[in-house]
Amino acid sequence: xxxxxxxxxxxxxxxxxxxxxxxxxxxxxxxxxxxxxxxxxxxxxxxxxxxxxxxxxxxxxxxxxxxxxxxxxxxxxxxxxxxxxxxxxxxxxxxxxxxxxxxxxxxxxxxxxxxxxxxxxxxxxxxxxxxxxxxxxxxxxxxxxxxxxxxxxxxxxxxxxxxxxxxxxxxxxxxxxxxxxxxxxxxxxxxxxxxxxxxxxxxxxxxxxxxxxxxxxxxxxxxxxxxxxxxxxxxxxxxxxx
Length: 242
Fold this sequence. Notes:
Layout: E1 30-35, E2 41-45, E3 50-54, E4 57-61, E5 72-77, E6 83-87, E7 90-94, E8 99-103, E9 114-117, E10 123-126, E11 131-135, E12 138-141, E13 151-156, E14 162-166, E15 171-175, E16 178-181, E17 192-197, E18 203-207, E19 212-216, E20 219-223
Antiparallel strand pairs: 1-2, 2-3, 3-4, 5-6, 6-7, 7-8, 9-10, 10-11, 11-12, 13-14, 14-15, 15-16, 17-18, 18-19, 19-20
């Protein structure tokens, strides 16, 4: 493109590369992912264990490495580069080579569906029944609501408030050890899958069916297919907000 005083520009199409699990695990599905400090990608599957993708190659972590739960529901790398893995067999932590079990799952309601590390280095855990926290190696389980919230995501806003996305109770703020439900916007579903805290103090909200919403200074703004979204299901939000 030739411009009037701005020089010559070239626009190149970016290509999407699809990466498949190596044999014999090609039929398995990625359930959760996180980015490692070294640029690698940690990916949990629906029965094949945990994989690290780096340099175009997959490395698998399973029973031999101490990861007894092969159905991975959540994965997170903390600021110390520990790898936390939620599975159907409980919660595991590792150094990128070996894993050990910290807490064992007793039933499906205790599956770790979401994990988040706050600015203080505390690890927050979301399950179908509520919220727990690991601080200095100790697990603290907070009182569970009467209705199962089905926690799916956390976000810490600029003021240090912790927000919690649930599939049954909508958007919540964690206050004094309890989930406090935030009054939703008109037409906003209770099924919220993902959150993103913006540097300006707002919270972006991805829903399962009603598109995208933004909570800013107490007011909601919603974005739907009428505003250009391909559909109303938002499973994940990612942005440069630091």
